[in-house]
Amino acid sequence: MRGTKFQLKVWKYLKSIPKGKVKTYKQVAIGIKSPKSARAVANACARNPYAPKIPCHRVIRSDGALGGYSGRGGIKQKLKLLRSEKVAI
Hints:
By secondary structure, the chain is mainly alpha-helical. It is built from four helices and two strands.
């Protein structure tokens, strides 16, 4: 994989989110031991060239909104992926 040290850290963490579960950008930031970096986590997700293999679609905003999706098909595809995993959105 190619990315910055921070991006690789985020992407590695994303692979640990189980199918059918979601986390917020803030929860991911806390999970990588960088609790004030939720916005940077969102940026790392936005630059994920490996979607959906690295499941950035499982990361949502703290207010419950979907946020963005860098994979092919954009936000509609994110919603489709989450629904296929039986996530109640």
